[in-house]
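Structure first, sequence second, as always.
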């Protein structure tokens, strides 16, 4: 009977050690591709996002990732038939900026044949990067934020570069 009990204890300890070893050696989370067909985009990320309505506009879906304790990324998607006018107003505001907006860098961008506007700015101790695209009646705002004392984090660059519109959603 003691032999049987000692075998069970040895098996239990071996299993516990193997489980601990596997957890320690998991390494970083594996990135994978996520497709959100209903909102017309795909992206690569280390996890699924927190998806919720925008508190300021409940008809806008927010997909939010915490890429690290100090790096966040989000995609806001909503129907905005006046999106092109909103982007034109944003461009005008940044070109004629005063105060905090003077440090904003703005440039035209194109993704999958869709024209957009990209900006980077610093507000306090946080640096923001945002790209806004109008695709049909949908507006997309792709944003990232990180501590301003740091360069843009590699995982945020990877996340931004992986964003694409679904084939059915190209211009």
């Amino acid at each position: 009977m003691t032999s049987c009990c000692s075998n069970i204890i040895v098996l239990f300890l071996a299993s516990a050690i193997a489980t601990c070893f596997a957890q320690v050696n998991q390494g970083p989370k594996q990135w994978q591709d996520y497709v959100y067909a209903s909102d017309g985009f795909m992206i690569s990320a280390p996890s699924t996002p927190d998806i919720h309505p925008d508190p300021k506009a409940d008809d806008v879906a927010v997909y939010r990732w915490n890429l690290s304790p100090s790096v966040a990324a989000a995609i806001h998607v909503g129907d905005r038939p006046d999106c092109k006018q909103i982007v034109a107003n944003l461009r005008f505001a940044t070109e004629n900026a005063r105060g905090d907006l003077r440090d904003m860098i703005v440039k035209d961008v194109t993704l999958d044949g869709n024209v957009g506007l990209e900006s980077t700015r610093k507000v306090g101790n946080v640096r923001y990067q945002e790209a806004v695209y109008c695709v049909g009646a949908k507006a997309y705002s792709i944003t990232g934020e990180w501590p301003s004392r740091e360069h843009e984090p590699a995982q945020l660059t990877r996340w931004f570069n992986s964003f694409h519109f679904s084939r059915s959603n190209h211009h």
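Margin note: The radius of gyration is 22 Å.
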